[in-house]
TrEMBL record:
Protein name, as recorded: Periplasmic heavy metal sensor
Length: 153
């Protein structure tokens, strides 16, 4: 009887785990978080189908054109990681590797932003409004203005 009981308990635990995983996955997918990327790219996710395809194609083209810059940035991050693992830290080399990685990131982002500007320039006012809504949504709520501190008498 104890073997059967153990199997029932194991089955219940497994089923609870699977149910939780399925529910968590469904919530994750419905929240719209997977694969959104950073805010400028994600802002185009609600464009009409044809414009969204063109938008994504334009951004993929920038990434393809920027492949070497992306690879250089990745290499710089690997070098930084290797430097951090050394018994004696070479701060000058670490700072240089991180700067190369940062510069590569900035270069790619600048190219992406320029392509988004070109896309917006060629698009309709309605498409620009969709992009604006996407940016505003991902920027988060607007902070409340800070109240002036009360003056003591």
């Amino acid at each position: 009887m104890s073997k059967g009981r153990n199997l029932v308990i194991a089955s219940v635990v497994l089923n609870v785990f699977l149910a939780g995983a399925l529910a968590g996955g469904a919530v994750w997918i419905r929240s719209g978080k997977p694969g959104q990327g950073y805010s400028l790219e994600a802002a185009g996710s609600r464009l009409p189908d044809q414009e969204r395809v063109l938008f994504r194609k334009a951004l993929r083209e920038v990434r393809r054109e920027s492949r070497q810059v992306i690879l250089d940035g990745q290499q710089a991050r690997r070098e930084a990681a290797d430097l951090l693992r050394q018994p004696v830290l070479d701060t000058t080399a670490l700072a240089a590797a991180l700067e190369r990685a940062r510069n590569a990131d900035i270069a790619v982002r600048t190219r992406l932003e320029q392509r988004i500007v070109e896309f917006a320039t060629a698009g309709s006012a309605a498409d620009r409004a969709v992009l604006a809504d996407g940016l505003a949504r991902r920027a988060g709520p607007q902070p409340k203005p800070e109240a002036e501190p009360k003056k003591s008498p």
